[in-house]
Amino acid sequence: MKILILSPYTTGQKQKPDNPLREEDCTSSERLEARIKGLCGYNAEGWYHESRDYSATAGEMFTGPLNAQLREGLKQIREHDQYGETTLDLYFPWYFCRVDGKKGPVNETDIIVPFDTAPLHKLEVLEYGDSGVPEQMASLIDSYDLAFSLLRQDDIQSLQRVFEVERPTTLIFLLAKSHRHVVNEDLPNLHVVETGSDLQKSLRTTNWAMKGVVLRRLCEAACQDGFQVFAQVKQDPQQLIEIARNQ
């Protein structure tokens, strides 16, 4: 089984320059390219200096509590001897911080530069045929058997063209009760696993880390009880909560 995890960007980042990538840097491709080059350690003359290099893989860059918990779970599952036929891949949805300049979902191994996440709170609905982002996200999701979304409400609404139609992949969204309205639960293969204060208390975690804790505990359960746990959750997504609570 191929499993996809979609994670949001977080303010907690490994690299903390005084001048991270900002919204105004994305106003032109030339300016964006120059700013990314500078954050990768190159000056205007093209000379590189390691002390000015703030780039890192996406998986390493985000150090917030959600991603810390998620990475711990992925580390455990990938070191298990059953890992191989069942695989888990981590992606982030927004591309403008990519060093390679590609316009597509960011894999955890892709190199990015640090950026101010505030612009991500002002996302517009992305239409097909404009940026190409919805098309690439849809293609990515459809190549997996099961997908978990830990995305924020704003992320989902911006990508709603991807999620407003039936997809062949089973999609499981971890969402607070007040955010359930951002997805159409009448669609086949789309499921919401509700998070909230009760779950937070039972897991003894923070609201910021909760979704990462749920996925970490799912990975731990798979390591302990067998990888068929993923198939069970695909069949009955609500099992995810009980697995997290009992692990």
Outline the secondary-structure elements:
Elements: E1 2-6, H1 29-39, E2 40-42, E3 48-53, E4 56-57, H2 58-61, H3 65-78, E5 87-92, E6 106-107, E7 111-112, H4 133-142, E8 146-149, H5 153-158, H6 160-163, E9 170-176, E10 190-195, H7 197-203, H8 210-225, H9 228-235, H10 239-246
Parallel strand pairs: 1-5, 1-8, 8-9, 9-10
Antiparallel strand pairs: 2-3, 4-7, 5-6
Structure report:
- With 247 residues, this protein is of the alpha/beta class.
- The chain is 36% helix and 17% strand.
- It has 10 helices and 10 strands.
- Strands 6-5-1-8-9-10 form a 6-stranded mixed beta sheet. Strands 2-3 form a two-stranded antiparallel ribbon. It has a two-stranded antiparallel sheet with strand order 4-7.
- The mean pLDDT is 91.
**Radius of gyration from the CA trace?**
18 Å
- What is the element string, with H for helices and E for strands? EHEEEHHEEEHEHHEEHHHH
Q: Helix segment count?
A: 10
The low-confidence runs, each spanning 5 or more residues with pLDDT under 50, are none
Q: Determine the fraction of residues in helical runs and give it as a percent range.
A: 25-40%
**Structural class by SSE content:** alpha/beta
Which strand order spans the largest sheet, edge to edge or round the barrel? Answer: 6-5-1-8-9-10
- The rounded distance between the terminal residues' Cα atoms is 22 Å
Overall mean pLDDT stands at 91
Q: In percent terms, what proportion of residues is strand?
A: 15-25%
What's the story with the biggest beta sheet?
6 strands, mixed
Shape: globular
Count of DSSP E strands?
10
